[in-house]
Amino acid sequence: MKKIRIPPLLLLLWLLGTAVPCAADMESYDFSGPVSEQRYKDLVGELRCLVCQNESLLASQAELAGDLRKEVYELMASGKSDQEVVDFLVARYGDFVLYNPPIRPATYALWIGPFILLLIAVLILYRTISRRNRRTGTELSEAERARVAALLGESASEKDSR
User: Fold this and answer.
1) Does residue 84 share a domain with residue 35?
2) Where would I find the H helices in 63-162?
3) Which residues of 28-54 are buried (b: 16+ CB within 10 A; e: fewer)?
4) Global pTM value
């Protein structure tokens, strides 16, 4: 099978071409009305992209993120407060859309889970270290010491004869 080789210049142009829609998306909004640009950026910066999962709506280039940015802008332009916009998105997509979900029974695992895993890791580390210390701390019996001395004595006498 023949490998296809893409020239670096063509690859660079393709990458630049895919980055432009996200930048153009921000410039298409009219921030002279009831929605300030800083308020908009702050709000979409606090919301998680449902596709990327590790990026905010502001940073994501996913198509769904663009749709959600547009929806957030339209809600803000219609006079909704930031909390009303967040409540709308949480009602539609769940707490996952928030970077900092509220503490409630449904999200206990998200908040407490990492600490439980850390505690388990510390206990395993402690147990491993204590077992290792018990193994290395054993003393030799008199018979074992005599055997070691005899072996070392034989090897020392063999070295002297050479």
Assistant:
1) yes
2) 63-77, 82-93, 108-136, 142-161
3) ebebeeebeeeebeebbebbbbbeeee
4) 0.54
Write out the H or E segment, with its range, that includes residue 38: helix 37-45
Helix (H) or strand (E) holding 12: helix 8-27
Question: Domain of 136?
Answer: 107-161
Q: CA separation (Å) from 122 to 36, 62, 72?
A: 48, 39, 43
In a domain, 125, yes or no: yes
Q: How many CB atoms are located within 10 Å of the residue 96 CB?
A: 13
What is the rounded distance in angstroms from the CA atom of residue 14 to the CA atom of residue 42? 30
Asked if the model's pLDDT at residue 69 lies above 80, the reply is: yes
Residue 27 counted as domain residue = yes
Please state the domain count of the chain: 2
Same domain, 70 and 33: yes
Does the structure show a pLDDT above 50 at 24?
no
